[in-house]
Amino acid sequence: MDYIVIRDAEVKDAEGKGYVHYKSWQETYTGLMNQEYLDKMNVEKCVNIAKKYLENILIAEVDGKIIGYSCYSQCRETNYESYGEIIAIYVLKEYHKKGIGKMLMDACIKKLSKYKGIVLWVLDSNKNAINFYKKYGFSFDGGKKEEILITPITELRMIKNL
Q1: Greatest Cα-to-Cα distance within the chain, rounded to the nearest angstrom
Q2: Would the pTM count as exceeding 0.90?
Q3: Whether the Cβ atoms of residue 22 and residue 35 lie closer than 8 Å to each other
Q4: Residues 55/30, Cβ–Cβ less than 8 Å
Q5: pLDDT in tens, 120-152
Q6: 34-40 LR contacts (CB < 8 Å, sep 24+)
Q7: 4-8 and 57-62: which strand pairing?
Q8: What 3 state SS string does 56-108 have?
């Protein structure tokens, strides 16, 4: 691995970002959520999402290849308007343990530094992500929500004050 670049997403990144979205969900959530839901995902759907939503996306690139991304914004919850939110951080499995998730997290925190703190939601069974966020000083605040992705999943809110 030669050169890692973290940068704002551009229109030309939709294909690569969409692929990472698709592939990282398969790698991350197999065994953690309904397999039928994951099987219904495809690269084309993820690329179409990437084409529609390029704002507040950071791209991780190695040697010109998109291998990860993150998404951030002002917190979408009404009682947390003074907080930023990290909506997603995904890195292809073959690039795990190389500091790329850390680089994306650091870049998100920098982009959100004007806020009082940062909120994120994590799948309750995703122990790797929970441990990663805890290393950054995020902790559970009791927030919990269920979504139905064919079967219910539970997400837990974590917060880091800045």
Answers
A1: 43
A2: yes
A3: no
A4: no
A5: 999 999 999 999 999 999 999 999 999 999 899
A6: 34/149, 34/150, 34/151, 34/153, 36/150, 37/149, 37/150, 37/151
A7: antiparallel
A8: CEEEEEECCEEEEEEEEEECCCHHHCCEEEEEEEEECHHHCCCCHHHHHHHHH
